[in-house]
Write a structure and sequence with these properties.
Radius of gyration: 17 Å
Shape: globular
Helix content: over 70%
Strand order of the largest sheet: 1-2
Number of domains: 1
Number of helices: 11
Order of helices and strands: HHHHHHHEEHHHH
Structural class: mainly alpha
Length: about 230
């Protein structure tokens, strides 16, 4: 049975179930010392980002995604002052990244769902979720060649990871949405480069909004002007 043949209430219910299971896993894992605080945060960062692909697959209306993002944003704001999600927000530095993450998802859904091009919202969030998330993991574990840009400590290993994952994510999503066309293989190159730049220069977790918005808007613009689409 195709996803869109499922009742709307069931498709909507799958979203909080999916997100809740990931957050619960991360929080319990942190409390039971299965994961460090940083590992819990990355599980949530990467895992919950996939909810936008689920919304695309289930063909959910825009209001569901915008409302869900708004609620998530309010919960994360409260969690900065109340011990709601200690494992997710214990980053050891001043950052509103989790809140910006929710904001960017709501904005991208509000922009691209009405345009009938949800794939670009998916690109923006998945580049952030997988690209930035895996770059941080690789950089922390294998980052033997550090560098600084605008006070941000990075590693070349993490940067290359972000570059490659951003290209792969963009290409896969466009391939699913549009098939084997020339621009599908080209768009990911500048998107990946811009993702690296935005992630490198952003402060206080604001890359969780600049990176997905930049990647999504650039991918959309390039898809419109490149030949073969």
């Amino acid at each position: 049975m195709s996803a869109f043949l499922l009742p709307l209430w069931l498709r909507i219910a799958l979203v909080p179930m999916f997100v809740g299971s990931i957050v619960l896993l991360a929080e319990l894992g942190h409390r039971w010392q299965w994961f460090t605080s940083e590992q819990s945060r990355k599980i949530v960062h990467i895992g919950t980002g996939n909810v936008i692909a689920l919304a695309w697959l289930l063909q959910l209306p825009a209001w569901v995604g915008i409302t869900s993002a708004g609620l998530a944003g309010m919960i994360t704001l409260l969690s900065y002052w109340l011990p709601i999600l200690p494992g997710v927000n214990s980053v050891g530095r001043k950052s509103y990244g989790t809140f910006f993450y929710s904001v960017s998802m709501g904005l991208l859904i509000a922009i691209f769902w009405p345009l009938k091009h949800p794939e670009y919202a998916v690109i923006g969030i998945l580049v952030m979720a997988w690209g930035d998330g895996l770059a941080a993991i690789v950089g922390q574990k294998w980052g033997g060649h550090p560098y600084k840009i605008l006070g941000n400590l990075k590693s070349w290993e993490g940067t290359v990871t972000l570059l490659l994952v951003s290209y792969i994510v963009t290409t896969i999503v466009l391939y699913i949405a549009h098939g084997n066309l020339l621009y599908v293989w080209l768009v990911g190159i500048p998107v990946a480069i811009v993702a690296v730049i935005l992630e490198s220069i952003s402060q206080f977790g604001i890359d969780n909004i600049t990176l997905p918005l930049g990647a999504a808007l650039l991918a959309f613009w390039l898809a419109e002007i490149l030949p073969g689409n």
